[in-house]
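name: query_chain
kind: protein
chains: 1
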Amino acid sequence: MTATVQPTLDGTTPPAPADYDTWLAAVWPHFIAAAASGKTFTCYQVADTNRLPDPPKPRAHWGRLMHQLRDDGYIRTNGWTCSDRPTTRHSGVRTWRGTAAARREAAA
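structure:
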C-alpha cells in the first residue's frame, strides 16, 4: 500500500523528507558546536537558532538525536527548563551541556 502525498495549497508537491542519516549529517555539526560552546542548551534552541530542518519523523528523531549525542559522549544532562517551542505550552524539557569530547570534535 502506497501513501498519497497531499499537494500544498499552491498545487506543488512537497519534497519527500530526507532519510534520517541525511538529516543527521546536516544537523550534527550544529549540535556539536552548541555542545562545544560550554553553554547549557535545549534541543529546540539549537534547532531554532540555526533554522534546522525537521527530520523525517519529528516526534521521534529529535529525541533520538539527543540520545545519540549523549551515548556518543558529546553531551550530558544538565537539568530541566520550560520549553521555548511555541507549540509545547512551556512544558518541561531537558537541558544539555557539552563534554570535553564535544570540544575536541569541534576543534578537529
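note: The beta strands are 75-82, 92-98.
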